Each structure stands twice: as structure tokens, then as C-alpha cells.
Amino acid sequence: MKTKKEFDCLKMKDDAQRRRAAELSGLAPQELLDYYHRVHEELFRRQKRLRHGEDDPAQSLKGP
To answer: What does the CA dihedral 57, 59, 60, 64 come to, rounded to 10 degrees?
Structure first.
């Protein structure tokens, strides 16, 4: 029996992928590399803060 969900994880994932694709469309290869490098560095810094208890793990990650 299927239940009514209040939160649709797949829809959230698909929406995020569409937003990212729209954001990155038309970027030159070097701009894409710069984007992914920047996002990686931000994630690395956030993970470090989480390990040291300096960040709220419940806080959602926001894209650049």
C-alpha cells in the first residue's frame, strides 16, 4: 500500500540537479573547473568545522 509522503526525496534531488545544470550551462571548461574547485574547498572547510563541533550538522548545504 502506497502512503502519501510529505517530503519527496527524489523530487528534491531532481530539482537540485536541474538548478545546478541551469547554473552551469554555458560555462567554459575552465569556469567549470573553477566552480568545482570552489565547491570542493567549501565542502572541505565545512566538514572540518563539523569535525570540530563548530558548525550545525542540521544546517542544509546551500549551493554557491
So the answer is: -100
